[in-house]
Structure formats: structure tokens, C-alpha cells
Design goal:
Blueprint: H1 3-6, E1 31-36, E2 41-49, E3 56-65, H2 67-88, H3 91-99
Antiparallel strand pairs: 1-2, 2-3
């Protein structure tokens, strides 16, 4: 479809996201493990108990995604981190972040 054919159309609507009531509280994770295959990345989010020796962990969520999704996730996380850091981190720490 050419640009001229698109002119009369409205922009696509963002997806409507529905959060099930059972998932509204979310889960706590303080550790993540990533594995990969040629076709997908698997992210295990873990609640790790450092008070035991060795630490015990419980996978609270496992998410498998495509490599394309990983690149998009990295971009969004970087943008969100920069926005957060500009508000929450001291100026000296922000300057150090940009050097790395």
C-alpha cells in the first residue's frame, strides 16, 4: 500500500491490555536468569532467599520471547532507566552512568 493510500486512514490504535485480578499484585523477583535457543530467549524471574546457605530460589515467572522482542525490550528498558535516573539519581551518579 502506498503512502497516498494510507492518507485517509486513522493511525492504528494501541492494544488494549487487560490485567487479570489474580495478577494485579504482581510478583517479587530479585534475581533473573536468561537462557536462549536459536529461536527464543527464556527469562526466569526468581525470588532468591539469601538467608539460606546456599541461597534457595523460587521461579515466580517464566517468560519466553522472540529475539526481536528482546531487542525491543532492551530499547524500552534503556529509555525507562534514563528517565528514572534523571529524576532519582544524584547528578554525580548520572554523569558516571554516561561514561560507561
Amino acid at each position: 500500500m502506498s503512502d497516498q493510500e494510507n492518507e485517509g486512514e486513522s493511525p492504528p490504535q494501541p492494544p488494549q491490555i487487560i490485567l487479570d485480578k489474580d495478577q494485579m499484585a504482581g510478583v517479587w523477583a530479585n534475581f533473573a536468569q536468561v537462557s536462549q535457543s536459536p529461536f527464543e530467549f527464556t527469562l526466569d524471574f526468581v525470588r532468591l532467599d539469601y538467608l539460606t546457605n546456599p541461597p534457595n530460589g523460587l521461579v515466580v515467572s517464566r517468560v519466553s520471547v522472540s529475539p526481536l522482542f528482546i531487542t525491543q525490550l532492551i530499547d524500552v528498558l534503556q529509555a525507562q532507566w534514563e528517565q528514572y535516573a534523571s529524576r532519582a539519581m544524584p547528578k554525580e551518579a548520572q554523569d558516571g552512568q554516561q561514561d560507561s
